[in-house]
Amino acid sequence: MILSDGITVYETSEDRPMPIATVDPTSGETVQKFEPHDPSEVQRRLARAQQAFEHLATTSFAQRAGWLRAAADLLEDDLATAADMLVTEMGKPIAQAEAEVRKCAKAMRFYAEHAEAFLADEPLAAPESVGARRASAGYRPLGVILAVMPWNYPLWQVVRFAAPALMAGNAGLLKHASNVPRAALYLDTLFERGGFPAGAFSTLLIGAGDVDAVIRDPRVRAVTLTGSEPAGRAVAATAGAVVKKTVLELGGSDPFVVMPSADVAKAAEVAVRARVQNNGQSCIAAKRFIVHTDVYDEFATVFAQRMSALVVGDPRDRATDVGPLATEGTRRDLAELVDDAVARGAEVLTGGSAPDRPGWFYQPTVLAGLTPDMRIVTEETFGPVASLYRATDREDALRIANGTDFGLSSAVWTDDAEEADWFVRHLDAGAVFVNGMTTSYPELPFGGIKNSGYGRELAAAGIREFCNLKTAWRG
Q: How confident is the model at residue 131 (pLDDT cuts 50, 70, 90)?
């Protein structure tokens, strides 16, 4: 099985499991190795999760909200150590690591405040038409939910599942990416420290090859995965075979469209942040920049200049804009996409290579003159590499934007209200951001279409995904 966010990273190589280890991406040195949980420990944790669920199902929203707020307080108290952990394990620049920790605490408090309203029983209209005095629908927890999570947001990806799942009364099991074990073990205790019953949320230190058996265990009622398309297919196939629900977020190749009426300088400024956030390793980072021909040259010049001015370096240095990629394989795959494009005639406006230094760094890169025979046109780039396209009109821009198997999010820059509405209607994506960059908020539903997956996280939709919508008829 392949478990990653948006890039193919195999966790097995010639049937040898990938070690569970913290490897510093700034140097490539192994910091610490961890022993995987043996089968008996996995069974113990499954049993404990089921027991915790049975207890959680009897608790009130107020009780769970108190525990979740306490866990959020603990997370913020741990800000310095938690952020340093993210820097060490996947090279996230320190300011972004701190922002991730704070964002997690915010999401936890959001669900503590709103879960009860999101899951309140809903009276159904005209009950007399079905012979009832009253009819209603209510949301009830499913049970133990398995989360298979990637390394690029080691805390946020997990918390945006865990917070709503726990507030709904479910228990959670985490199979995290093998290169962020410290984050996985931190989360293993966080919610219990906040007051949740032992086992309400716990980590399984297992390899990808052990996931199938956990999905098939009758105590696991559903699965959520953020990762690569092949990983999603594998998990969905197993879950489907045993009739269990899945939510899949499988990455994207998000378009960033710029039209002539837009503030081009502002669009170019935001485009840089949209591309290199998290060192470019984000499923919702803008990756394909589609610019109307009337403003293409202006945008390309400013965009390339700003990308070339970014500081690549030590992620603990607050002057650094772009740190290393998280794994050696991630950088190798990214370099292969760039090299393939250049070999087939792409123009390098800036960057295009890895710097000569230890660690898994890659220069911020802008490519233009792309043609359909280049792999980068159809595959997701997971790193600080931007693809630049020229569009003749809005119909051409839409054609390029929708010309991908992915459909996670999108952005369009225009000061024409009718044009903005037109793009919102016609872009094939789970979200459209107008005159801004895509990001995730606890308040907004998040998820994609096409090969980007299905189901939603966050907002009311996210907490309802792992609930049984139970209809009640009263005569």
A: very high
Say how many C-beta atoms besides its own lie within 10 A of residue 278's C-beta: 26
CATH topology for 254-434?
A: Aldehyde Dehydrogenase; Chain A, domain 2 (3.40.309)
How large is the angle between the packed helices 61-77 and 156-168, nearest 10 degrees? 160
Considering only residues 3 and 179, tell me which one the structure prediction assigns the higher pLDDT. Answer: 179
**In 3-state terms, the chain is what percent helix, strand and coil (to 5)?**
45, 20, 35
Contact present, 303 and 410 (Cβ < 8 Å) = no
Q: Measured on CA atoms in the order 185, 191, 197, 201, is the torsion positive or negative?
A: negative
- CA torsion through residues 14, 379, 456, 69, sign: positive
pLDDT for residue 294 is more than 60: yes
Whether 116 sits among the annotated catalytic residues: the reply is: no
Same fold, 12-250+450-474 and 254-434: no
Residue extents of the structural domains in the chain:
12-250+450-474, 254-434
pTM of the predicted structure, to 2 decimals: 0.95
Catalytic residue among 249, 379, 380, 457: 249
Does the pLDDT of residue 335 top 70, yes or no? yes
Structure-block tokens of residue 443: 């308040």
Looking at domain 12-250+450-474, which of 3.40.462.10, 3.40.605.10, 3.30.70.1060, 2.40.50.1070 is its CATH number?
3.40.605.10
DSSP 130: G
Confidence class of residue 18 from pLDDT cuts 50, 70 and 90? Answer: confident
What is the average pLDDT score of the chain? 95
Out of 283, 419, 465, 467, the active site residue is 283
Q: Is 249 a catalytic residue?
A: yes
How many C-beta atoms surround the C-beta of residue 153 within 10 A?
27
Complete edge-to-edge strand list for the sheet that includes strand 453-454:
201-203, 171-175, 144-148, 220-226, 245-249, 453-454
Neighbours of 354 (CB within 10 A): 19
Residue of 404, 442, 369, 437 whose CA lies nearest to 164: 442
